[in-house]
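**User:**
Everyone, produce one record:

**Assistant:**
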Amino acid sequence: MKLGAMIYSFGPAIRSGAMTQRDAIVLCAELGLACVDTMSWLGSDPWPDVRKMAEDAGLYVACHIASANLASTDKAERRKGMDAVRMCIEETVTLGADKLMIVTGNIPDGSDRPSTQQRIGEALGALADEAKGANVRLCIEDFPGEQSPHRTSEELLAVCDIAGPDLGICFDTGNFYAGGQTPEDAWPHVVDKTIHSHLKDWAWADDGRHITSDGRRFNPELVGQGIIDYPTVLAGMKASGYDGVLSFEYEGPRDRAEAAREGIAYLRSVLKGI
């Protein structure tokens, strides 16, 4: 398993001007990471330049991440979303990555989870076939929120079954909590479809901005300081034969560069012990 980081983790610093995308990539290299995940909506650098930044730092882009509304009940809106994904497939190729994660949109008003999964699965099935021709694999993750169409392992697999064998899963260790699962519970169900992973953590909080299916609330926390048992989670992933990227993610209020240093050091210590 290889350690990487999401550029998203440095998003507030990049948007404020305190850090550039190049700064984030150089920091990831200094921390001894293998790769980064890029975001289609974060940073203004041309994609060929971002690829060169990574290569100059001795890194590669493992996964590109994009957002497209494939959940809409409006066919024209879904076609627009599919066109956005096609553009991002081209971006992924330019970046030299072979995986593109799609944030698919929420359940629309007046719709339900199964029918939304059907629409998303059908769209991703067509797009996954196109992406395959560009040597890019599409994936979705367990996305949080009461209106997310795929929060649990069961819901992820339902979309994958509709889309067909070329759609993969990005295993997000934290987001399963929104659907009432732990990552330990979810992993055995999705291991065969998992092609990438994001590692984050949470802390329970009465005023938390996220909510579980049973009403508990939580906020972002740094890996190793929250509720997730990372030694157990990572040992289970290793034992099952997963040899892909473990991409660090942080969404909390701390300085993002300092959080990355501390969080990645923690993950490296866990990996040495399993």
In short: Residues 204 and 216 are 8 Å apart (CA to CA). The domain at 2-272 is CATH 3.20.20.150 (TIM Barrel). The longest strand covers residues 60-67.
